[in-house]
Amino acid sequence: MSSRAPIFRNRTEAGELLAAQLIQYAKHPDGLVLALPRGGVPVAAEIARKLELPLELCLVRKLGLPAQPELAIGAIALDGIMVLNEPVIQQFQVSQQTLLQVAEAERQELERRRQLYQADRALLPLTSRLIILVDDGIATSATLRAAIAFISRQQPQSITVAAPVAPPETCELLQQLVDEVICLIMPDPLDSIGRWYEDFSQTSDQEVCQLLAEAAERLASP
To answer: Starting at the edge strand that comes first in sequence, how are the strands of the sheet with 55-57 ordered?
Structure first.
């Protein structure tokens, strides 16, 4: 893809553009926007705001290769579901012991985030909902596949994956797992997700909590 390809100013703009492609879900009584923390939350919050839908989190964590943390050897969900990236595991000869150590560290981080983001708030049910699952971009899809497995166990009405950017082969893979995939640009090669944003600064815990509170307050308002 050329250097003239679309570039998002930030995650909020990416969410606004995605919302325009999801307009059929606006104000749907069964609609629910699920964000992958942390980077997916600003994108999802804007989708939820535009479509007037509730916002919730789907807590999953990438299992990063110890020597290259950005390279996924798999992902784990809050309920223990684990999706492995077998080609990477084999290529780098990741031992079972290393895999378990990484998984345990990420499981602890998931629990920390659950306590911080959820506190005493009950999670919204996913059963029979029209789920819009959102991230700020997709590379290997390991994290997203763990999220899909977690959501599918709760028998939603449908699952739509929405992301600003992902490579075409990843979108094709996800199409086999969910009802719909909405992706604004599909560069080949991807290079990196951050390459397609002008501002791809890290989303903080504080920002996640603030966006969740704002979404809840908006829905509670008459």
So the answer is: 55-57, 31-35, 130-134, 158-165, 180-185
